[in-house]
């Protein structure tokens, strides 16, 4: 939508009239529509419409209504976007979501949007205040990458993954937390792709799917570390405004330290940190 602050010489009613007079899809774009580029900007508008409803997804008829497009046109554009990964489609629920390629392009196109730099002050504070190791995990295709970690002052360290290390999505508490907050279609696609990789850890796709369901019920992960049964990890997602998981924050500690009360303490601290990170990202102008 056009912001009044962008055009101080016009009134609020002028802005409303200008926006309302446009086609439905064009109301989701800022500023004037470049001549000869209607098809391109219409695609951008459809992606904005999906972004605003990404947590629940949208059925075709809902997109048609919001964008004021012919159903055949909307279906043709969405099919093309789906074929290149810009849009994902939940075949069972018949709902469209933003696709995984958008997030990957986003993270590479904006080098100043650096999750490691954004999250660093928060994991430093977590490690200092709670004494245990804190991690930032982000998605990269079918994998999760440890973007950063910070060790606490507890004399027995519990680093279960190193910075830059990759794991198949679903393995490890931070990685599982990211996977569980993706759409059903993405979860199914990733688990199917990673089946053979899970087997190397004596796990199956069905086991990972059950864990995903449990995470969705609880809203967080609390489980033993992938590399050591003597270590417990707790993880929560870093969600953008649309509900898409930008990554996860997690902490690990010795099993002997992980009482129910301490797990709850870590979870609350992680939740608070992720809310602050989300607000920070929003203040930067991102979703």
Automatic annotation (TrEMBL):
<dbReference type="Pfam" id="PF01614">
    <property type="entry name" value="IclR_C"/>
</dbReference>
<keyword id="KW-0238">DNA-binding</keyword>
<keyword id="KW-0805">Transcription regulation</keyword>
<dbReference type="InterPro" id="IPR036388">
    <property type="entry name" value="WH-like_DNA-bd_sf"/>
</dbReference>
<dbReference type="InterPro" id="IPR050707">
    <property type="entry name" value="HTH_MetabolicPath_Reg"/>
</dbReference>
<keyword id="KW-0175">Coiled coil</keyword>
<dbReference type="Pfam" id="PF09339">
    <property type="entry name" value="HTH_IclR"/>
</dbReference>
<protein>
    <submittedName>
        <fullName>IclR family transcriptional regulator</fullName>
    </submittedName>
</protein>
<dbReference type="InterPro" id="IPR014757">
    <property type="entry name" value="Tscrpt_reg_IclR_C"/>
</dbReference>
<feature type="coiled-coil region">
    <location>
        <begin position="256"/>
        <end position="283"/>
    </location>
</feature>
<feature type="domain" description="HTH iclR-type">
    <location>
        <begin position="37"/>
        <end position="100"/>
    </location>
</feature>
<dbReference type="InterPro" id="IPR036390">
    <property type="entry name" value="WH_DNA-bd_sf"/>
</dbReference>
<keyword id="KW-0804">Transcription</keyword>
<dbReference type="InterPro" id="IPR005471">
    <property type="entry name" value="Tscrpt_reg_IclR_N"/>
</dbReference>
<feature type="domain" description="IclR-ED">
    <location>
        <begin position="101"/>
        <end position="283"/>
    </location>
</feature>
<dbReference type="InterPro" id="IPR029016">
    <property type="entry name" value="GAF-like_dom_sf"/>
</dbReference>
């Amino acid at each position: 939508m056009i912001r009044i602050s962008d055009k101080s010489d016009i009134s609020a009613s002028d802005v409303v009239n200008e926006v309302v007079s446009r086609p439905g899809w064009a109301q989701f774009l800022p500023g004037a529509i470049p001549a000869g580029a209607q098809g391109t900007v219409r695609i951008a508008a459809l992606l904005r419409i999906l972004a605003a409803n990404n947590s629940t997804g949208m059925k075709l008829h809902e997109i048609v209504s919001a964008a004021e497009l012919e159903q055949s046109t909307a279906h043709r554009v969405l099919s093309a976007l789906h074929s290149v990964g810009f849009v994902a489609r939940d075949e069972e629920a018949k709902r469209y979501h933003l696709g995984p390629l958008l997030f990957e392009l986003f993270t590479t196109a904006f080098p100043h949007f650096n999750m490691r730099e954004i999250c660093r002050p928060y994991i430093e504070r977590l490690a200092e205040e709670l004494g245990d190791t804190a991690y930032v995990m982000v998605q990269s295709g079918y994998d999760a990458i440890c973007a950063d970690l910070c060790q606490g002052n507890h004399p027995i360290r519990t680093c279960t993954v190193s910075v830059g290390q990759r794991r198949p999505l679903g393995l490890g508490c931070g990685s599982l937390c990211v996977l569980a907050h993706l759409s059903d279609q993405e979860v199914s696609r990733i688990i199917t792709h990673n089946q053979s990789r899970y087997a190397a850890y004596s796990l199956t796709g069905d086991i990972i799917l059950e864990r995903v369901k449990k995470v969705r019920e609880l809203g967080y992960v609390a489980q033993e570390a992938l590399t050591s049964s003597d270590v417990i990890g707790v993880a929560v997602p870093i969600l953008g405004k649309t509900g898409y998981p930008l990554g996860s924050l997690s902490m690990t500690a010795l099993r002997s330290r992980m009482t129910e009360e301490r797990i709850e303490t870590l979870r609350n601290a992680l939740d608070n940190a992720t809310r602050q990170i989300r607000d920070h990202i929003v203040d930067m102008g991102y979703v």
